Amino acid sequence: MSAVRRICLVMDRAFGARLESLPKDAAVWIVTSSENKPAATKLWEATGQSVTTFREEPFADILPTVDMHHLGWRELEVHGENLSTAAMEALSEFGPGDASPISGGFIFIRKDP
Q1: Are 7 and 70 in contact (CB under 8 A)?
Q2: Are 78 and 11 in contact (CB under 8 A)?
Q3: What's the rounded Cα separation, in Å, for the pair 43 and 63?
Q4: Which of 73, 80, 76 is nearest to 5 (CA)?
Q5: Could you give the CA distance from residue 98 to residue 88 in angstroms, rounded to a whole number?
Q6: pLDDT in tens, 3-19
Q7: Residue 1 has pLDDT above 60, yes or no
Q8: Which of 6, 10, 11, 93 could form a disulfide with 26 if both were Cys (CB 3.0 to 4.6 A apart)?
């Protein structure tokens, strides 16, 4: 477990090389795919940035695992998942917060981690 405050959660199986554009101070969780796995390995080897790959599963199902590994996180930047009522319901299990859409996803900021 780590005191990472910012997490990037990538649900997009074709994210690949865009991984390098994510914030360098964030822990990255990315769904495993033939395009994502080599990009994750390259980023980790080049920078030492925290990169975790996971098997594809629904957004709501991966959140408890991410939370367990990064207690106290404040910001979750999500790629490959739309800002929806279902996404907000899943996030509400981890406390109140505000979400804003971004291209291909959204950012959720918890009020009291």
Answers
A1: yes
A2: yes
A3: 23
A4: 73
A5: 9
A6: 679 999 999 999 999 99
A7: no
A8: 6
The three-state secondary structure class of 98 is strand
Please count the residues of the chain: 113
The C-alpha R_g of the chain, in whole angstroms, comes to 13
Give buried/exposed letters for 90-111 (b at 16+ CB in 10 A, else e): bbeebeebebeeeeebbbbebe
Our separate counts of H helices and E strands in the chain read: 3, 6
Task: Write the DSSP symbol of residue 57.
Answer: -
Cα–Cα distance measured from residue 113 to residue 98, given in angstroms and rounded to the nearest whole number: 12
E strand or H helix that includes residue 44: helix 36-47
Give Cβ neighbours of residue 58 (< 8 Å, ≥ 6 apart).
none
The bridge status of strand 6-10 relative to strand 27-31 is: parallel
d(CA 93, CA 58): 15
Q: For residue 35, what are its two tokens?
A: 């395009």
Q: Tell me, rounded to whole angstroms, the distance of Cα 15 from its chain centroid.
A: 12
CATH number assigned to the domain covering 6-110: 3.40.50
Q: How confident is the model at residue 4, as a pLDDT?
A: 76
